[in-house]
Design goal:
Two copies of one chain form a homodimer. Chain A is α+β, with helices and mostly antiparallel strands. Chain A has two domains: 282 residues, Zn peptidases (Aminopeptidase); 119 residues, Alpha-Beta Plaits. Chain A contains 14 helices and 18 strands. A six-stranded mixed sheet of chain A has the order 1-2-6-3-7-17, sandwiched between helices. Chain A has a four-stranded antiparallel sheet with strand order 11-13-9-14, covered by helices on one side. In chain A, strand 4 and strand 5 form a beta hairpin. In chain A, helix 1 crosses helix 4, helix 1 packs antiparallel against helix 14 and helix 2 packs antiparallel against helix 4. The longest helix of chain A has 19 residues. The interface between A and B is large, with 78 and 78 residues. Strand 11 of chain A pairs antiparallel with strand 11 of chain B, so a sheet runs across the interface. Chains A, B: GO terms for molecular function: metal ion binding; peptidase activity.
Amino acid sequence: MDVRTYIEAHREEFLSSLKEWLAIPSISADPGHHDDVRRSARWLADHLTATGFPTVEVWETPGLPAVFAEWPAADPGAPTVLVYGHHDVQPVDPVEEWDTPPFTPTERGTSLHGRGASDDKGQVLFHTLGLRAALAASGADAPPVTVKLLVEGEEESGSVHFAELMKARRDRLDCDVAVISDTTMWAADTPSMCVGMRGLTDVEISLYGPARDLHSGSFGGAVPNPLKAMADLLSALHDRDDRIAVPGFYDDVVEASAEERELIARLPFDEAEWLATAASTAARGERGYSTLERIWLRPTAEINGMWGGHTGAGGKTIVPRSAHAKVSFRLVPGQEPLKIQDRVRAFVEARVPDGLRAELEFGGPGVRACASDLSSPALKAARRAMERAFGTPVLFTREGGSGPEADIADVLGAPLVFVAVGLDGDNIHAPNEKVETPLLLKGAESVAYLWEELGGTA
Amino acid sequence: MDVRTYIEAHREEFLSSLKEWLAIPSISADPGHHDDVRRSARWLADHLTATGFPTVEVWETPGLPAVFAEWPAADPGAPTVLVYGHHDVQPVDPVEEWDTPPFTPTERGTSLHGRGASDDKGQVLFHTLGLRAALAASGADAPPVTVKLLVEGEEESGSVHFAELMKARRDRLDCDVAVISDTTMWAADTPSMCVGMRGLTDVEISLYGPARDLHSGSFGGAVPNPLKAMADLLSALHDRDDRIAVPGFYDDVVEASAEERELIARLPFDEAEWLATAASTAARGERGYSTLERIWLRPTAEINGMWGGHTGAGGKTIVPRSAHAKVSFRLVPGQEPLKIQDRVRAFVEARVPDGLRAELEFGGPGVRACASDLSSPALKAARRAMERAFGTPVLFTREGGSGPEADIADVLGAPLVFVAVGLDGDNIHAPNEKVETPLLLKGAESVAYLWEELGGTA
């Protein structure tokens, strides 16, 4: 029985299992649902045992548990793949906006509705179906690669114990490639692979001037105004081409290859539609790059918040004592968050006018960007696997946002490959989350082929 | 009996009357004290009648009453002088910081402590003593000029009905010169006259971008950020010399004369002491002007408040939907607030980037600056009068702030002359307000000579 036939034959069984799991409201951000998160971990462990994994463990953390499983390849020389996903889900408020109850999974047409259907239970579960399909197709009783699963329970509440867990269990997690199934592809008819995510570091900048608010009649125009200095500082963050003017900011940037830019240009991007999604009437960004390149390939400096002085009703004619701003920087491969923090600090301190004092508070060590090597064998294998499943060329995308994935690559020292079938229209983190069931089956088919490709048995 | 002898002889009687008036807690900003403000008006009316004014009237307003009095000169061709002051006082909080109860007037050394002692009951009352002294010295039973008093009851709560009252009573207020006794002089040993106050107009600027806050991972660096645009806009408000860059802003400025700048330079200004008062560690302002000139003679643009995006704890990686700033402009003679508003609007609108929308809300029509003509006979007469009283040269100062005085000049079409003896150290609007009684007596002496000087009888 070939992979596709097996998957079609087990469609109902697969969906039935998924619905069972989706019925567990494993909301990690809500302490009232922490028992449900633990129940979700046990459900998954049982399911993995039933799938045939010889090793299945629930890994406790100071917070909520992750699930680990391992199925060694018959050939001890075969590569090891680690699959990352999560079994906790987002909260459901405003619950009155759901068309069907969030924890009563409901099929409507090709869609399966329910919290976690796309993010991430559906995408975790297609791995078990894909693995069974690969075994059925090969007739073997062990996969062509050693398959490890690590499915965390705190992803939707900040992955606060995840890096620590990975470090503590580092020896059990050894692998040659990490497969991430927690993202989206371009469109249902345009399968794609994410090949990078931006990093992040953020800072709160405060400028302090007079020891108290001053009457602007008595002192205005004769002492430095912290809000004015903040405006000058933030205005100087970018040059006329909307490039970031912090000295050295771009020094370590690894530019995307011409091949990747060419592949991005092939995506059927509709700028008008994108602007409608952005609820903005104009696109604007670094000169010389397209909108997609600005979001995916280029670092940014964004003012997230700013405040100081009188912000209530009416006028108050003061020179305020302080000004504050929150600025976040999206980073790209090559940029070290801590090095960027040093450069931002130097930029600010070089620009503090006489009479003012600057304080910078960085929001932790930041997150590095990650990107796949487009020429790596693992990435090529995954692309071939998805193209076999979908029967159409697979393009590359990136994510403009930042996640714990870079930590995974760092801790494990393994390349990341994103195999995921979510869609932007899946309403993840919103009411009426759903997943397209045909895409889940394509996901299962893709990973079945991927194990073959990586095991060299295709 | 000469003026000074009369005043010395009536010192105790004068202070006794003032203490009686200061005991009335006429706090206009506190509705619980509005009856006291009315009582204060009646007390003043009775006192003016006792002084000898043939006409004394309490003028009701939709709010709190003003007191008007008139004493015609014997010579119907003599000039008419209108004295402006106010009989309401500031609130007293924090009352626990007063060394003596605010409405139990207490003499300590040369100081008389109590709310309103300097601002403004003491400075209103020296006019009655001065007028009696002038009559005693001349032996006449009418003053050498027609003296009118207008003492409002809402100055400390915004003078909300004052302009309307003046317009309604315009015919009764006709005068050749208006004397303002509600300000300060440079120092007890450096008598001075205020010869100008700055005007004011203020605006709240809002910039609107995306219809909602956007995720900076998905949209940052590719749509215009309203906070960034606000920083650019406010940074562009001044040029490198800290001159205001709004086109046409300085077009109508009437520059202060070389004589006035020279007189300001003669004031014993201690910049280090001033910075200590400002609680600032540096002075900064328009290139080419001293600190006093920046505050008194030059228009300014001051950012009073600014806000937008995430201003709470922690990070929130958004492109905010809007940015807001409050900006106030101090104006100098020649500048029309409404014309400045037009120019500020044009400046902002010319700089709104694509994809953003600006809204400007001006805080009313603004206030014009006022300044005395240093060569006017009235000003020269007042300076001579003060020099006779103090026995030392009288210098000129200005006020950096703005008040209703420009309205008085506008409505009455009369030049303003500031004769006042308050000190910066009088703690007006603060706990432990006081006045120096020797200066109040010098104030009385000054106006006695002023009526002579203006009446041509000196």
